[in-house]
Amino acid sequence: MTLIKSISGIRGTIGGKPEEGLNPLAVVKFTAGYATFIHRHSSAATRRRIVVGRDARISGEMVKSVVTGTLAGMGFDVIDIGMATTPTTELAVVAERAAGGIILTASHNPWQWNALKLLNERGEFLNAEEGREVLSLAEAEDFTFAEVDSLGRLIADSRYGERHIESILNLERVDADAIRAARFRVAIDCVNSVGGTVMPDLLHALGVKETVRLHCHPHGHFSHNPEPLPEHLTEIAGLMTQVGADVGFAVDPDVDRLAIVCENGQMFGEEYTLVAVSDYILSHTPGAAVSNLSSSRALRDVAQRHGCPCYAAAVGEVNVVAKMKETGAVIGGEGNGGVIYPASHYGRDALVGVALFLTHLAKKQMTVSELRASYPSYFISKQKVELTPEIDVDAILENVKAKYAGYEITDVDGVKIDFPDRWVHLRKSNTEPIVRIYSEAPTQAEADTLGDELIRDIRAFGKK
User: Is 107 a catalytic residue?
Assistant: First the structure.
């Protein structure tokens, strides 16, 4: 059993004794802590209500019952939007003028896991300071349940998936007529979660000629590892040429990450989802682009083609959103397939990504593989080093900075070293005694070699 409490929420495997796993006792404490936080900080403009949505995990109904009951017990009305994507829940918070929202999803974790992700009244994730306050309230059990006359109500509303799709169709840069004229045949892999219901509906609304479905029944028993990485998407890759699909889309269980598959079965590359969508947006709406420090340099190159600035934020969606607001960015996201389009909302949204990508593809009149070849080609290596608890990770990072002081150094989130044609980013985990090493270079071998070199540095400095 595993239970991880962090500033971004609480997640764990279902079951176990108290404090061993994600069980009803843990869920009650954390939900009540969050409700107390919301009560203390929500503005007068919001109503005393909280939106709850969930993905299709088999534990979802149980966890939802505990969460909604606890929120009602804390005196909040609960808008239960049922099975819904993360971005749909984010939009629902704003539409309901709610005080906050909780998304029940462990994202790309396996089916044994679940989690509570916490939103503020803007439908955006809590920042680090706010997350720490929720954890503190939960740990101290510093909350008071409502008396009987002040209990909240449970209100079901299952229409937000349709409303989300309608909002996407109304985006200025989504051209359903162009998509319809292209007569696309699209293959999708929705890993037996909520994407299996909303993705086909979106593609139909966009005018896609035919949708070939893989794992679209939302029963929650994921058909493969749910993280949309190439090694987990071999089935849809093999299907592309068999069915003559023009493009393939794969999403994670809560539909905030989008992976794209070329017509020849090759992966477009999760880093390049944001690159392609940004290329389209910046060509029509010049402005800043933002990604995190561990995302591909290709985004910067594409932004420069359009004469637009590109900024890097610390890793984490909340940090990217903050940087986007600071710079007035028109597009942003993360290199894990997460697209954030402020014209829709400030959250990673695979559905918005699909609509913008298909519009881009229809207007370019190219195959997906041709479109991919039009972008600068980089390769990323993702590695990690496990450290014993007594090792001073901060001291190691300072030693790395000193060794590579002759190069461009960014230290807002760990240490990133920019070389002329490659980079490496080292950052310590918030939950494990490890250092993550992401490196990018013109070839995979060079990216791996650069990562290996920094691993040797880390181990050498760790012995001092």
Answer: yes
